[in-house]
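Technical note accompanying the year-one report. For the benefit of new consortium partners, we illustrate the data format agreed upon in the data management plan: each record pairs a sequence with a structure-token string. No post-processing was applied to the example shown here.
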Amino acid sequence: MGFARGVYYEFIAFPCGGRPYSMPLGVLFGERPSFRVFEGTGLHGILARRGGLIYLLSPLDPLLFVESVGHSLERLLAWEGSCPRVEPSLGSWFSCTAVYERTSGGADFYYCREFRNLSSSLLVYSRTYGCLVELLILKTKAEAGVIGKESLEYARWLYWCVKRSSPGEEKYARVALSILQGIEKALGLG
């Protein structure tokens, strides 16, 4: 389906079968798509270890993530039964049949027994992609001499972001480390 293995992708989750609700959700793609839901979140209460059908939106406009957190997104969408109507103009839509796996560290872990594309577009944003691109931009700026050592902490955080967001694929962390070392060298630290 075009997803890199071992990388988290960012979606807005809409659980079907109850009241209209949405929340941002990172889904890790490995042998099968999987995610965790922390105790205290609305999605945790809705899934309640039963799992169920979830619609996932990878939005074209990242402000939809903000609207989801503020729970105004639910009011902007049309609903068909207990699921949102798929609106391709908003981004790429998928469905996941969530199956409870285990509880650990204050979170319930689920995997998608079925993961299907519901719309024709396949635009999907990953944390790794965003942090890696930002790290490359910093490297370009460091090499051009337009940023100084004050940017190093941010660059190190971006390296951590890449490493953290791709736990199943070390090549991204290796590349990010190489870019970070290039930034340090450009700033006279390497």
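Partners are asked to follow this layout when depositing records. Residues 27 and 35 are 5 Å apart (CA to CA).
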